Amino acid sequence: MPDFTADSPTPVYVRAADYLTALIRSGELAPGSRLTPERELASNLGVSYDTIRRMTALLRERGLIVTVHGRGTYVSDPLPP
Question: Looking at residue 68, what is its pLDDT?
Fold first, then answer.
Protein backbone atom coordinates (compact mmCIF):
# COMPACT_ATOMS: atom_id res chain seq x y z
CA MET A 1 0.00 0.00 0.00
CA PRO A 2 1.35 3.45 -0.85
CA ASP A 3 2.37 5.97 1.77
CA PHE A 4 -0.20 8.76 1.99
CA THR A 5 1.72 10.98 4.40
CA ALA A 6 2.10 14.69 3.72
CA ASP A 7 5.73 14.30 2.56
CA SER A 8 4.81 14.47 -1.14
CA PRO A 9 3.87 17.57 -3.14
CA THR A 10 1.23 15.48 -4.98
CA PRO A 11 -2.20 15.77 -3.32
CA VAL A 12 -3.28 12.72 -1.34
CA TYR A 13 -6.43 12.20 -3.41
CA VAL A 14 -4.32 12.04 -6.60
CA ARG A 15 -1.96 9.49 -5.02
CA ALA A 16 -4.96 7.44 -3.86
CA ALA A 17 -6.47 7.62 -7.37
CA ASP A 18 -3.15 6.52 -8.87
CA TYR A 19 -3.06 3.60 -6.42
CA LEU A 20 -6.55 2.43 -7.40
CA THR A 21 -5.74 3.02 -11.07
CA ALA A 22 -2.78 0.66 -10.70
CA LEU A 23 -5.03 -1.97 -9.06
CA ILE A 24 -7.54 -1.65 -11.90
CA ARG A 25 -4.91 -1.75 -14.66
CA SER A 26 -3.22 -4.79 -13.09
CA GLY A 27 -6.53 -6.67 -13.03
CA GLU A 28 -6.61 -6.91 -9.24
CA LEU A 29 -9.86 -4.93 -9.48
CA ALA A 30 -11.60 -6.48 -12.47
CA PRO A 31 -14.01 -4.65 -14.79
CA GLY A 32 -17.51 -4.78 -13.35
CA SER A 33 -16.33 -5.40 -9.80
CA ARG A 34 -17.80 -3.30 -7.02
CA LEU A 35 -15.53 -1.02 -5.03
CA THR A 36 -15.52 -1.07 -1.25
CA PRO A 37 -17.88 1.57 0.19
CA GLU A 38 -16.24 4.99 0.47
CA ARG A 39 -16.13 5.17 4.28
CA GLU A 40 -14.62 1.69 4.51
CA LEU A 41 -12.13 2.52 1.75
CA ALA A 42 -11.11 5.68 3.64
CA SER A 43 -10.51 3.61 6.76
CA ASN A 44 -8.58 0.92 4.86
CA LEU A 45 -6.31 3.49 3.18
CA GLY A 46 -5.94 5.65 6.29
CA VAL A 47 -7.22 8.82 4.61
CA SER A 48 -10.25 11.04 5.15
CA TYR A 49 -13.68 10.45 3.65
CA ASP A 50 -13.35 13.74 1.75
CA THR A 51 -10.10 12.48 0.20
CA ILE A 52 -11.94 9.38 -1.04
CA ARG A 53 -14.76 11.53 -2.46
CA ARG A 54 -12.22 13.58 -4.44
CA MET A 55 -10.40 10.40 -5.51
CA THR A 56 -13.59 8.80 -6.85
CA ALA A 57 -14.45 12.00 -8.74
CA LEU A 58 -11.01 11.86 -10.38
CA LEU A 59 -11.40 8.16 -11.24
CA ARG A 60 -14.81 8.91 -12.80
CA GLU A 61 -13.17 11.68 -14.87
CA ARG A 62 -10.54 9.17 -15.99
CA GLY A 63 -13.36 6.82 -17.04
CA LEU A 64 -12.16 4.04 -14.75
CA ILE A 65 -15.21 3.81 -12.48
CA VAL A 66 -18.94 4.43 -12.65
CA THR A 67 -21.24 5.19 -9.75
CA VAL A 68 -24.83 4.00 -9.75
CA HIS A 69 -26.81 6.02 -7.22
CA GLY A 70 -28.06 3.78 -4.43
CA ARG A 71 -26.20 0.72 -5.74
CA GLY A 72 -22.48 1.47 -5.48
CA THR A 73 -19.36 2.24 -7.45
CA TYR A 74 -18.01 -0.20 -10.01
CA VAL A 75 -14.92 -0.60 -12.17
CA SER A 76 -15.83 0.44 -15.71
CA ASP A 77 -16.48 -2.28 -18.23
CA PRO A 78 -14.85 -1.90 -20.68
CA LEU A 79 -11.87 0.05 -19.39
CA PRO A 80 -10.69 3.08 -21.38
CA PRO A 81 -7.33 2.70 -23.15
Answer: 94
From 81, 73, 79, select the one nearest 33 (Cα to Cα). 73
CA distances from 54 to 19, 26, 70 (A): 14, 22, 19
Q: Give yes or no for a contact between 20 and 32, defined as CB atoms under 8 angstroms apart.
A: no
CATH topology of domain 12-75: Arc Repressor Mutant, subunit A (1.10.10)
What would the pLDDT profile of 27-65 be if each residue is shown by its tens digit?
999 999 999 999 999 999 999 999 999 999 999 999 999
Helix (H) or strand (E) holding 81: none
CA 72 – CA 64 distance, rounded (Å): 14
